[in-house]
Amino acid sequence: MRKTAYDVAVIGATGTVGREIVAVMVERGFPLGRLRLFATRASLGQQIEGTDAGIEELDSEADLSGNDLVFLACPPEVAQPWGKRAVAAGAWVIDTSVAPGEAETGSLVVPEVNAPALAKAKESRWVASPHPIAVGLAVVLHALRQLAPLTRVVATALEPASLLGRAGVEVLEEEVRTLLRAAEPEPSDLFPQRVAFNVCPIAGGLTCSAPGLAAENQAVRHLRSVLDAPDLPIQLNRVLVPVFFGLAITVDVVLQASVDSVALAEHLRSAPGLLLVESSQRATEPALLVPTPATVVGSDATHVACLSLDPRVPAVDLWVALDNTRKGSATNAVQIAELLVRDHL
Ligand SMILES: NC(=O)c1ccc[n+]([C@@H]2O[C@H](COP(=O)([O-])OP(=O)(O)OC[C@H]3O[C@@H](n4cnc5c(N)ncnc54)[C@H](OP(=O)(O)O)[C@@H]3O)[C@@H](O)[C@H]2O)c1
User: Fold this and answer.
1) 89: CA distance to ligand 1 center in Å?
2) Residue of 17, 96, 110 to mutate, ligand 1, most atoms within 8 A of C-beta
3) Local confidence pLDDT in tens for the 345 residues of the chain
4) Domain residue spans in the chain?
5) Smallest Cα–Cα separation from 232: which of 136, 161, 149?
6) Within the chain, what is the greatest distance between any pair of CA atoms?
7) Ligand 1 atom 37: the closest Cα is on which residue?
8) Ligand 1 atom with least separation from CA of 18
9) Fold: same for 6-129+329-343 and 134-324
10) In the list 20, 63, 211, 306, which could disulfide-bond 319, CB 3.0-4.6 Å?
11) Is ligand 1 within 6 A of the CB of residue 167?
């Protein structure tokens, strides 16, 4: 008989993504049975909004048995061994840790784009939520390719400090405070250069890699995997910007055939997971403002605006913005959980 409630654990529940996973499950009415929250000893006693469940320490004694689903929202080196233990204890794992290696051999899923790929994970019971840039671009490109096949994609992602979690947010905060006191911040080992009041290319054609951000091709690999387009030419530039939360991406897509602007807007208006903002920079209604990191925080949609068609080549330019901690990771992970409940648990 089908269960009516599912026992879930979140590893990394006190982090940027883990907290959102709990919030999104509650908001979307996920059929939660028992909820267990794991973090380090330092977080014991913390309360997570939306639940009365306490934090448990993830030490070598931690017992993961009895869970239907385990979300991994912790560093990859923690996610890998504990994910394996969770699977061995009978759970399905949903991995947001964007770790190279194992996560990429499992199924990378963006529900609006490649939900059937979940079936491939039946044996491993390990599903990964792709890199947040890949999640946002996959939703947009999947909608576009329903109008005309894609020839080439050039994108520049403007990345917030929170892509490196709480530590990234803390570095930016500290740098801002220091600079406002007219002092020079200490260099951090998290980012290649100062983040506050600065803009720094970190990967892509604007090449220069940085420790911790060096997964320069990972977002592209994830995107090709989700789109099932292994040979699609994709140029992804990544630029670190002095923003706490929210990811913005400029996208230029060459198509194999021209599309009509009215048909394009109509199609994007009804594409799953997309919110087309037919906006004006001077709009007084918040919903009509061009979407930016500041306006999309807390939203589960991938926002698209500033559509422009190049009549000389069949190409579309657009502006994309999404919350990296919501659709970029937590919301996508909870949507995967909803599909597992519907089809596999
Ligand atoms: N931030 C994003 O936008 C984003 C988007 C997509 C994917 N991701 C990925 O999601 C994962 C989590 O990222 P985040 O941004 O949420 O990081 P975060 O804010 O730094 O949070 C990390 C979480 O992992 C826990 N943790 C760390 N070491 C642990 C250990 N040894 N044992 C148990 N728990 C441990 C932390 O617990 P304590 O609080 O006790 O330290 C915290 O709950 C990372 O793999 C990241 O690459 C992040």
Assistant:
1) 22
2) 17
3) 788 999 999 999 999 999 999 999 999 999 999 999 999 999 999 999 999 999 999 998 899 999 999 999 999 999 999 999 999 999 999 999 976 654 455 689 999 999 999 999 999 999 999 999 999 999 999 999 999 999 999 999 999 999 999 999 999 999 999 999 999 999 998 888 999 999 998 864 444 444 444 444 789 999 999 999 999 999 999 999 999 999 999 999 999 999 999 999 999 999 999 999 987 656 666 667 889 999 999 999 999 999 999 878 899 999 999 999 999 999 999 999 999 999 988
4) 6-129+329-343, 134-324
5) 149
6) 65
7) 39
8) 16
9) no
10) 306
11) yes
- The CATH number of 134-324, from 3.20.20.330, 3.30.360.10, 3.10.180.10, 3.40.50.300, is 3.30.360.10
Tokens of 214: 């060096």
| CB neighbour burial string for 325-345, b if at least 16 within 10 angstroms, e if fewer | bbbbbbbbbbbbbebbbeeee
CA atoms within 13 A on the CB side of 88: 7
Ligand 1 centre and the CA of 170: distance in Å? Answer: 14
Measured from the CA of 324, which atom of ligand 1 is nearest?
3
Evaluate: CB of 39 within 6 angstroms of ligand 1: yes
Q: What is the C-alpha to C-alpha distance for residues 181 and 166, in angstroms, rounded to an integer?
A: 23
Residues 293 and 281: their CA atoms lie apart, in Å, by: 14
**Type of residue found at 290:** V
Pick the CATH number of 6-129+329-343 from 3.30.450.20, 3.40.640.10, 3.40.50.720, 3.90.550.10: 3.40.50.720
How far does the chain reach from its first CA to its final CA, in angstroms? 11
C-beta separation of 246 from 294 below 8 A: yes
Q: Which residues contact 115 (CB under 8 A, 6 or more apart)?
A: 109, 339
Q: Is 196 left (phi over 0), alpha (psi -120 to 50) or beta?
A: beta
Whole-model pTM above 0.90?
Answer: yes
Contact 309, 1 (CB under 8 A): no
